[in-house]
Structure formats: structure tokens, C-alpha cells
Write a structure and sequence with these properties.
There is one protein chain. This protein is an alpha+beta fold. The protein folds into two domains: 181 residues, GAF domain (Beta-Lactamase); 61 residues, Arc Repressor Mutant, subunit A, CATH 1.10.10. It is elongated and about 80 Å long.
């Protein structure tokens, strides 16, 4: 058994791409362009990673966004459980690859004792070999991508090169999807904020007309209702509008 940790470097990118790997990259871009969510994209990447690295019987991708929220995708339940064990035990090749930004290869989980608790828990899943590569963009670690095999010694130097090149491309695409996801959530939040503003403005108008008060006093009445009922200003405003609607019936 030979435990391997190989640093991902720009020099690796100078390796000649085969037509097959170039086709994989093209397919990766096409798949991810159709992905509507980060989770969907990670699932697609996992499946493609398994197809790309010979001998792989499962694959997965785990990322952590800027708000420290973890997302993951996997090809099957075994990979999902093996990854969950790493996070539960706070040890494992995927976590090491992400933290050190180096590719990690495990030739045999039954022999490699760098992560003894994780290895002992993962072996009953029928996984004997593993390889993890970091996802890094602009010196920012996004997470890691990993492949597993049922036979020890499945992965070699060629496997390392394939996963390293795959992870470099995958990292760029994941970063783009994360940016799109953040923009979508921000846009949704802004739309909600504008809706709340309009509701509050309308409710103030109702209170001004009903109680013959000015705008400042009407807003004070909304705030008082918030404190009494333990609700937000927008919720109090909606209650005012609901009450006004019932009165008109």
C-alpha cells in the first residue's frame, strides 16, 4: 500500500488533454448549464466523475459556501454515508484534501491508518480505495470531489491526473453556479423586501384614513401592534389590510 498526497499545481494543467477528457469537459459544461440548483449540479458532477475515472464504483462532491452552508451530491447511498461519516467524525480523505488543497489517494482503507475511525466505519460499506481532489478557485477552497472503489489499488498516477484535471474544471463551474445561486437568492430577497414595503405603505394609508392621523402616527400604530402581538412590521401591516378587507364585505 502506498499512501499518496499530491499537490494540485498549475503545472498539472499543462498535461495534454485527450479527446475523451476534452469531451468530458464539454459535457460537464452542458450539464451544469441546465442545472437549476447547486445540489442538482453536484449530483451531475458526481455521476460524471465516476464515469471519468476508471474503476470508480461511486463518486461525490461536497462544498461549503461563503455562509458556511454545506451542500453535497453523490452517486449512491454508500458514498453519501461515507461522506457523512467524515463530517460526523471530523476526519477523512475528503476533508484533508479540502483543507490542505492537495490530492489525497488511499490505496487500501484496510491498511491506511491516517483516519482510523473513518476507515473502520467506511470499510463495512464495501469501499476499499478512495481518492479526493480539492475544488479551488482563485485561491478559495470550495470543497472537494472524491471517487471510491471496491477493490484496493484501483487508482494510480493516471487516475490522479484525471481527477486533478476534472476537479480544476469542476471548481470553476461550481463557483459560477454558486454565484448564480447567490444572485437568485438576493433577487428573491429584494423582491420580498419591496413587497413588504408596499404592504406597509398601504397599511399606513388605511390607518391614516380610518383614524384621521398623519403618516408618522399611523406608522407608530403599526409599531405598537408589532410589540403587542410579537410580529414584524410587514405582518402587522398585512393584518391591517386583512381587517380592512373584511370590513368592506
Amino acid at each position: 500500500m502506498r499512501a499518496v498526497m499530491t499537490r494540485t499545481s498549475p503545472a498539472t494543467a499543462t498535461l495534454p488533454l485527450t479527446d475523451e477528457l476534452a469531451a468530458v469537459f464539454a459535457r460537464m459544461s452542458g450539464l451544469l448549464l441546465s442545472a437549476e440548483t447547486v445540489d442538482t449540479a453536484l449530483g451531475l458532477l458526481s455521476a460524471l466523475a465516476q464515469e471519468t475515472v476508471p474503476g470508480s464504483t461511486g463518486a461525490g462532491v461536497s462544498i461549503v459556501d461563503e455562509e458556511r452552508r454545506r451542500s453535497s451530491g453523490s452517486t449512491d447511498d454508500r458514498v453519501e454515508e461515507a461522506d457523512a461519516l467524515q463530517y460526523d467524525l471530523d476526519e477523512g480523505p475528503c476533508l484533508t484534501a479540502a483543507s490542505t488543497r492537495e490530492l489525497v489517494r488511499v490505496d487500501d482503507l484496510a491498511v491506511d491508518r491516517r483516519w482510523p475511525r473513518w476507515a473502520d466505519a467506511a470499510l463495512p460499506l464495501g469501499l476499499r480505495a478512495a481518492m479526493s481532489a480539492p475544488l479551488v478557485v482563485a485561491d478559495r477552497a470550495l470543497g472537494a470531489i472524491k471517487v471510491y472503489a471496491e477493490q484496493p489499488g484501483t487508482f494510480d498516477r493516471h487516475s490522479e491526473r484525471l481527477l486533478t484535471l476534472f476537479s480544476a474544471q469542476a471548481a470553476i463551474l461550481v463557483a459560477n453556479i454558486q454565484s448564480h445561486d447567490r444572485a437568485t437568492r438576493l433577487s428573491a430577497g429584494m423582491r420580498e423586501a419591496f413587497r413588504d414595503r408596499d404592504v406597509v405603505s398601504t397599511a399606513k394609508g388605511v390607518l391614516m384614513g380610518r383614524n384621521a392621523v398623519d403618516e408618522s402616527t399611523a406608522f407608530g400604530m403599526l409599531l405598537a401592534r408589532c410589540q403587542e402581538e410579537g410580529v414584524t412590521v410587514a405582518q402587522a401591516a398585512r393584518a391591517v389590510l386583512d381587517s380592512a378587507a373584511r370590513r368592506r364585505r
